[in-house]
Amino acid sequence: MSLQEHAFADVADVRERLRATGYLADEAIATTVFLADRLRKPLLVEGPAGVGKTELAKALATSVGAELIRLQCYEGLDEARALYEWNYKKQLLRIQSGSGDGGAEGWQQAHDDIFSEEFLLSRPLLTAIRREEPTVLLIDETDKADVEVEGLLLEVLSDFQVTIPELGTITATRRPFVILTSNATRELSEALKRRCLYLNLDYPSAEREKEIVLSRVPDLPEKHAESLVRIVRALRAMELKKAPSIAETIDWAQTVLALGFDTFDEAAVASTLGVVLKHASDQARAIGHLKLTAN
Fold this sequence. Notes:
By secondary structure, this protein is of the alpha/beta class. The protein has helices at about 10-20, 25-40, 55-65, 80, 90-95, 105-115, 125-130, 145-160, 190-195, 205-215, 220-235, 245-260, 265-270, 280-290; strands at about 45, 65-70, 85, 120, 135-140, 160-165, 170, 175-180, 195-200.
């Protein structure tokens, strides 16, 4: 089923198809994704780092057989990196190769040549708009980009078209399913939010996180999964530089399985703490708080 049509039959279909990819969606996630598909609206997913925002976009693309195109946002991102730019080196070579033609006519020919498809470098936004196949456009960590980039996103997401002065206006023939993510490090503009449906993602409940761990590491004993999740939740409650993500919980589960621990005791926790805590100060705080013996 393509994204040109409705991708999902109902909310239950969303949950089932996302589950088939390994992503366990709750009712709120499944409902919001279903509505974004039906209303053809971009979906803004906001929440702390490591709760599965990017994974949702990947799972959605897989579930509907779409190509995932990702625009990773960062400070200093500009239109050339997000939308398109011209291949200046190749253009220069073309001008030099035609410099012997002479006269205004020769220059006009070179000008027409260098501002053609051959010299256009398509970046994620333009690539997603031009695709005729099902596409999921992921605009990742939108809050890291400068405010000016939001203006560009407003223009693109309003009409799903881009104007290139030298080539004209390019309009999407098949609208991509757009997911924007934000770690909420700054407020996004109200204008951008108005154009999107909104989904707030937080760390899952203990029961759901255990279910996620066991779905990804099915050979892990359930008692170990319970212990892991309990300790991870205790770590997240501390004032750490970087709280463990769901992906790191899964990494820890795979570590426990790889090392063949019979019991996940204090020694096992202390010896593998680096899998989930990547700052020495966080490890020291955890060892003190959990009353572990450092190796």
